[in-house]
Amino acid sequence: MTQPQPIHVIGGGLAGSEAAWQAARAGLLVVLHEMRPVRKTDAHHGTDLAELVCSNSFRSDDAEASAIGLLHEEMRRLGSLILSAADRHQVPAGGALAVDRDGFAGAVTRAIENEPLITIERQEVTDLPPDQWDTVILATGPLTSPLLAKAIGQETGEAALAFFDAIAPIVYTDSIDFSVAWYQSRYDKPGPGGDGKDYINCPMDAAQYAAFIAALGAGDTTDFKDWERDTPYFEGCLPIEVMAERGPETLRFGPMKPVGLTNPHRPEKPYAVVQLRQDNALGTLYNIVGFQTKLKHGAQSEIFRAIPGLENARFARLGGIHRNTFLNAPKLLDSELRLKSRPALRFAGQVTGVEGYIESAAIGLLAGRFAAAERAGRTMVPPPPTTALGALLGHITAGADAETFQPMNVNFGLFPPPVAPADSKKRRLKGRDRKRAYTARALADLDAWRQSAD
Q1: Are 346 and 337 in contact (CB under 8 A)?
Q2: How far apart are CA 330 and CA 341, in angstroms?
Q3: What is the DSSP code (8-state) at residue 408?
Q4: Which range is least confidently modeled, 116-130, 294-308, 419-433, 436-450?
Q5: Which of residues 36 and 112 earns the better pLDDT score?
Q6: 60 phi and psi angles, rounded to 5 deg
Q7: CATH number for 101
Q8: What is the pLDDT of residue 231?
Q9: Statement to judge: residues 136 and 206 lie in one domain
Q10: Could you tell me which of 96, 18, 72 has the C-alpha nearest to residue 287?
Q11: Is residue 378 in some structural domain?
């Protein structure tokens, strides 16, 4: 008896792991190809699937008032492996969902390894798949290997778009001076698994802040190779020194804003605050929020130890920078994430031009379900554009302008606007009422779509 062909998923990051899981949940054989440890990358440190290489935060978990929190909830309702592992390995982070990165990646890896329908092959795929691989999901992420990226470019005829993504440093908690620093979330807001004291705060007065900005401007930074020099940064993950270049007050209105915090050590309000977020379940590691950087390691050690409370900081990891690539998805992909020139090949994750861990996993979830439906001989209707999944998918495959396409996080600007109920006294919904209208409509529409799809 002829064995059914498996679905091949190339790339074992968040998107690839989620795609493989969804296809296997539909009862299909899957081969998941992951090149590590046979070939390493500039950003990964281990061999687990779904390793987090930048922040350990999946951002807001508020499903009533935030688009990313809504996306979390939609994925939970669709049996997401990534959200399940994140929920089991969350660490306190105010209103955000943050995870112990090692526990999270280990949980995803074990789930995939223990799924009998999934086979993991540790090898580098250096070219587009052979024709006998009739259903393929390419989820190689922003660190697609050069040979494979070249093959994709030759197939699509498109010059690869690219940007730099920077990594924030991680500090050992016991090296922080708590006679200066203190625990508190902004406005004392507790998040998943938290208690309103989920961040470590290091205050600065005006003189300290000015000196810090000056040091950032004078710091020695990584030299780019000639072919990297014109690559733009993604606006949502700018190096801190690049933000500082935009004006001396930029950081005070960004990651170092002093609002919603009260220093228990001194009565005066801080001029600026550096926040650190828990990075592992034990609470022994904290990452410096918003401090992704291209400073050289020596400059980082000197400049960041000038932050009050971090004078004796020991770093478990210093910051870094790596180059990301993504497709011009609105031009190259159809509504089911298939490459128009080669429909047997789907793309998923950051390589499609979504930005963020959860957005990448969400596109992997959809790619796995699209592939499973196709293999079963049926067409899966995409989720409604009123849902976070549908809005994100619609943006990258049709809604965005192909001429100006750039990576995008999920946001309510991608959704059709909500309409006030007929019996409402308000002619226009505003603020939290408007956000709740988006989210309530989305979850109702997702549940209806899910029932019809199943």
Answers
A1: yes
A2: 13
A3: B
A4: 419-433
A5: 112
A6: -60, 140
A7: 3.50.50.60
A8: 66
A9: no
A10: 96
A11: yes
Q: Would 1 be classed as within a structural domain? A: no
For residues 310 and 205, state if they share a domain: yes
pLDDT grade for 171, boundaries at 50, 70 and 90: very high
Say how far apart CA 222 and CA 257 lie, in whole Å: 27
Structure tokens at 375: 């293999």
- Written as six digits, the tokens of 89 are 């390995």
Question: Structural domain of residue 260, as residue ranges?
Answer: 166-323
Contact 243, 343 (CB under 8 A): no
Last residue of a domain, one of 288, 307, 323: 323
Q: How far apart are CA 312 and CA 310, in angstroms?
A: 5
Q: How far, in Å, CA of 277 to CA of 293, rounded? A: 17
CA distance 24 to 97: 26
Taking a C-beta distance cutoff of 8 angstroms, is the pair 138, 145 a contact?
Answer: no
* Separation CA 266–CA 341 (nearest Å): 63
Q: Are residues 214 and 318 in the same domain?
A: yes
- Do 58 and 126 lie in a common domain? yes
Report the candidate in 137, 129, 136, 132 with the shortest Cα–Cα distance to residue 155: 129
* Local confidence band at 1 (pLDDT 50, 70, 90 cut-offs): very low
- Per the document, the length of the chain is 454
Same domain, 182 and 269: yes
The top-scoring range by mean pLDDT among 6-15, 143-152, 183-192 is 6-15
Position 238 scores a pLDDT of 82
Give kind and range of the element (H or E) at residue 387. Answer: none
Strands of the 90-91 sheet, one edge to the other: 57-60, 96-99, 90-91
Task: Please state the domain count of the chain.
Answer: 2
| Token pair of 202 as six digits | 């290091």
Calpha distance 84→361 (Å, rounded): 12
Q: Considering only CA atoms, which of 397, 391, 383 is closest in space to residue 438?
A: 391
Residue scoring higher pLDDT (366 or 419):
366
Question: What digits encode the pLDDT tens for the residues 61-106?
Answer: 999 999 999 999 999 999 999 999 999 999 999 889 999 999 999 9
How would you class 38 by CB atoms within 10 Å of its CB: exposed for 0-12, middle for 13-18, buried for 19 or more?
exposed
Q: For residue 188, is it within any domain?
A: yes
Adjacent-strand bridge partners of 272 = 204
pLDDT of 405 higher than 90: no
Assess whether 106 and 85 both reside in one domain.
Answer: yes
User: Among the three residues 273, 299, 323, which one is the final residue of a domain in this structure?
Assistant: 323
Predicted pLDDT of residue 79:
98
Model confidence pTM above 0.85 = no
Do residues 156 and 173 share a domain?
no
Q: What is the CATH number of the domain that holds 211?
A: 2.40.30.260
As a whole-number percent, the residues of the chain with pLDDT over 70 amount to: 89
